[in-house]
Amino acid sequence: MIIGALALIIGLGWVLTNRFGEYFREDFQRGIRTDIALLDQRLSVETTVAHGLAISMSGAPDLAEINNLTADSLARIDKLVDRYAAVRPGLIAYVMNRNGIVVASSNRDTPTSFVGDNRSYRPYFQDALTGKISQYFGVGVNSGEAGFFAGAP
After folding, report:
1. CA within 13 Å, CB half, 150
2. How far apart are CA 129 and CA 116, in angstroms?
3. Beta bridge partners of 151
4. 114 neighbors 107 (Cβ within 8 angstroms)
5. How far, in Å, CA of 137 to CA of 147, rounded?
6. For the chain, how long is the longest CA-to-CA vector?
7. What is the distance, to the nearest Å, from the Cα of residue 120 to the centroid of all Cα atoms in its chain?
């Protein structure tokens, strides 16, 4: 009788443990799916914003003199990249000339300034040369951090 009762208790314990394990595993998977969906949505918003900023900035009248810079035109372009970078903390806006040299950057006053860097080899610049709007996930040359890059001719 005692052996039968112990077998019943052990059997019920095993069944309940199994059920609880399945329940928690399913709950954990639901949580992961939700987190992934939120990350996907956040990434989509961030890339859309950066993409839109690149397109918008590329049409700015201040960039008309990008290949014949004067002190005044550079000051206007500096203000332009600062305004665009202010949209989101951490965003760096910069402008390159036709040779792929960064002529203005919102991080120009930092040790990792992009100003003067040659980025002609980057895919977003190569695409812009052919008239394409571009986006690129890669590693930052100066920071070594993963990032999203958007470009427009």
Report:
1. 18
2. 19
3. 134
4. yes
5. 6
6. 99
7. 20
User: For residue range 83-117, what is the model confidence (pLDDT) as tens digits?
Assistant: 989 988 888 899 999 899 999 999 999 998 999 99
* Closest alpha carbon to 149 in 43, 39, 54, 44: 54
Q: Which two tokens stand for residue 17?
A: 């443990």
Residue written as tokens 């002529």?
103
CB 1 within 8 A of CB 9: no
* Strand-pair partners of 137: 148
Closest CA to 126 of 91, 95, 151, 145: 151
State the amino acid at position 36 in one-letter form. Answer: I
pLDDT tens digits for range 8-65 = 778 777 877 888 788 888 888 888 888 888 888 888 888 888 888 888 888 888 888 7
For residue 152 the two structure tokens come to 């427009």
Instruction: Please report, as a single letter, which amino acid is at residue 4.
Output: G
Dihedral sign, CA of 63, 135, 39, 42? positive
Contacts of 116 (CB under 8 A, 6+ apart): 101, 102
> Helix (H, G, I), strand (E, B), or coil: what is residue 108?
coil
Nearest C-alpha neighbor of 112 from the set 122, 120, 102, 98:
102
